[in-house]
Amino acid sequence: MDLLTAVEVTQLCLSYGERDVFSDISFRVNFGDIIGISGKSGCGKSSLLHCLCGIIPRFIPANIKGTVKIMGCDLAQMSLAEISTKIGLVGQNPETQVFMPTVEDEIAFGLENMCIAPVEIEQRIDWALDCVGMNGHRKTKPALLSGGQKQLIALACALSMDASIFLFDEPLAFVDEEGRKKLLPIIKNLAQDGKVVIMVDHMSENLQICNSIIGLENGTAKEHFNDTYTARY
């Protein structure tokens, strides 16, 4: 691994029982990259993302072969605490991610589990909400927020953990056009700040911010430069 490499996947194979999902997938992601993962429904996009953060096989039983290295470390040998400081995961449905009484409670939850000092937790909450433009909603009940606003809070939670790698599983699926216009620039800014973004999406217009795309089809993957890459957002 060189100093630019954040994620390195080598000959990754996944199956659920007798059903093969994908095999022999290899790719490398550098800091500052935005990588899209595309393909038809059921091709293994979300499963690949879950392999990259350890959800598979730690929480979702599956047969997995090959290696995933995160910043030079074998993911299989990393503790959950180590993973949580390096990888932030934002799913597609904010209703399943945001569940605490207030926005500030939601962001503080993960930080408290990491035993972060209370003073620093307060600072991180302020900073994360400012990053996503939601600093006026610190005391708001999540139930009062729109789907797009809840997704911004989910992103703020990931930002507060000071991760270097962000995994997005169709982050715009439950977001309206206004929310989409807010989220895409934030995602792109992460890469401009030297972070890594790996984003699953089946909508080509959402993948225009990616500099390359990994296409999953028939259990194999092909990475190619995104000819439609644009600085639009």
UniProtKB/TrEMBL annotation:
SMART domains referenced in this protein's UniProt entry, alphabetically: AAA (SM00382)
Alphabetized SUPFAM superfamilies for the sequence: P-loop containing nucleoside triphosphate hydrolases (SSF52540)
Membrane topology: Peripheral membrane protein
Subcellular location(s) of the protein: Cell membrane
Alphabetical UniProt keywords: ATP-binding, Cell membrane, Membrane, Nucleotide-binding, Translocase, Transport
Gene3D superfamilies: P-loop containing nucleotide triphosphate hydrolases
GO molecular function: ATP binding; ATP hydrolysis activity; ATPase-coupled transmembrane transporter activity
Stretches assigned to the ABC transporter domain: 7-233
GO cellular component term, pick one: ATP-binding cassette (ABC) transporter complex
Name used for this protein in its record: Energy-coupling factor transport system ATP-binding protein
Organism from which the protein derives: Hydrogenoanaerobacterium saccharovorans
